[in-house]
Design brief:
413 residues; alpha+beta; twelve-stranded antiparallel beta barrel; 15 strands; 28% helix; disordered N terminus
């Protein structure tokens, strides 16, 4: 779902995501196209006559109301059970072009597989209030796709480059730069990882959302300009602030000059990124972990009902997680300094919000879950105001990973 700048009266949307894995082979090829056209549209992989393999990761994202008694939007084990059967029966360890009837006439691109997973899984949850809203499919570190219940679809392409820079703005004085950016004003380097997102409001199954020859040309041009360069001396960047926000915006503009696209995400570290969107909005995201124990238990249910609902998570002595949070803020972008928000202040705000939970038993040693089960849904809802109040109400999305497979997201819409 799209992020948005925060305005009074915004509606909050909560989603629960389940991550499942599968392995399969497939060939990207259209029978009635020439070899030259298949090569241009799909790239060298189209020559894999008997299929090329992928280790896929699928994310099934549900929306709906949270049961105040159980603290659950949906029982995640049911997602694993029902969606897992679909994967096993029709996708996992299959040659998709031949073993899955859906791909006899349609090339199993990341987009079309994500769509088919959505179509196969969504009807299985007609008996619950929560509904499947998104299916996201990652087929490699460089390639993923997202299919939405509206029929919209996104294709994501990742690429990497390494470069040096001084974090500073040519529009600020030396004193202002030093005060704002501190040690980062000295030359240093990053291994950048960048995601380009392309979007269609309705997926055309007859051809891929993005052609191989177009995205390959685009990425090659970006790498030629940025990889192993001193960014402050790159012609297009000399008059711009050299910040993560400004660099993401620059890459957005460069891609737009070559092909239409939706947005750019730029990681300068695995846990820190900036996003540039087509409406000139900028977002910053930062991941911060915390460690805590808890027990899933609803006071209104009997011991037998709790055990049936929560299973091993209802262990009377508790259990724990390395939780991972991802805070994304949006707001007014200062073009003079090239900043959306002070990084140190953002980092401090998140750590201060998490500190009362760090190395604690959430149910026994905090006040936040005295009257509510410490489910992922309730944790992310309890954490939202703690962070939002410390970042000037600029919080637009908050994610919580309880494990690598279970994610809870709260966002303003």
């Amino acid at each position: 779902m799209a992020l948005a700048i925060v305005y009074p009266g915004d509606i909050m949307l909560l989603t629960v995501s389940k991550r499942l894995e599968l392995s399969a082979s497939r060939r990207l090829h259209v029978k009635h196209w020439s070899e030259e056209e298949n090569l241009a549209v799909f790239g060298p992989e189209t020559n894999a006559r008997y299929g090329s393999g992928r280790n896929y990761t699928a994310y099934f994202v549900f929306t709906g109301p949270v049961d105040p008694a159980t603290g659950m939007l949906i029982n995640i084990s049911e997602i694993k059970k029902r969606a897992g059967k679909v994967l096993r029966d029709g996708f996992d360890h299959k040659f998709l072009n031949q073993d899955n009837l859906s791909f006899r006439e349609i090339s199993p691109t990341a987009e079309s597989v994500a769509r088919q997973l959505y179509c196969d899984v969504a009807p299985l949850f007609s008996d619950v209030e929560a509904k499947l809203s998104v299916c996201h499919l990652s087929e490699s570190p460089e390639r993923s796709a997202t299919y939405y219940f509206t029929g919209a679809c996104e294709a994501n392409y990742w690429f990497e480059f390494s470069a040096a820079r001084r974090t500073m703005s040519p529009h600020l004085s030396a004193e202002e730069n030093a005060r704002l950016f501190g040690p980062a004003t000295a030359p240093h380097g990053h291994n950048y990882r960048c995601r380009l997102t392309f979007r269609a409001e309705q997926l055309d199954l007859k051809r891929p959302l993005v052609r191989y020859d177009e995205i390959d040309t685009c990425v090659r041009a970006l790498r030629a300009e940025l990889d192993h360069q001193y960014l402050n001396e790159v012609i297009g960047l000399k008059e711009r602030p050299l910040t993560t926000e400004s660099l993401a915006e620059y890459i957005y503009e460069r891609v737009k000059s070559m092909m239409p696209h939706d947005r750019v995400r730029l990681h300068e570290r695995a846990d820190f990124f900036a996003e540039a969107w087509g409406d000139n909005t900028i977002f910053l995201g930062l991941q911060v972990p915390f460690y805590a124990a808890h027990r899933l238990h609803a006071a209104t249910l009997s011991d037998a009902e709790n055990m049936r609902l929560y299973g091993k998570c209802n262990n009377p002595t508790g259990h724990g997680h390395r939780y991972l949070t991802e805070t994304t803020i949006g707001g007014e972008y200062d073009e003079r300094s090239g900043t959306l928000y002070d990084f140190v202040a953002l980092n401090d705000a998140i750590h201060e919000s998490l500190e009362p939970w760090q190395d604690r038993h959430l149910d026994l040693e905090t006040e936040d879950f005295r009257g509510a089960p410490s489910t992922g849904e309730d944790i992310v809802r309890a954490l939202w105001p703690k962070i939002d109040n410390r970042v000037n109400q600029q919080l637009v999305r908050l994610r919580l990973w309880e494990t690598a497979n279970n994610r809870f997201t709260l966002r303003r819409t």
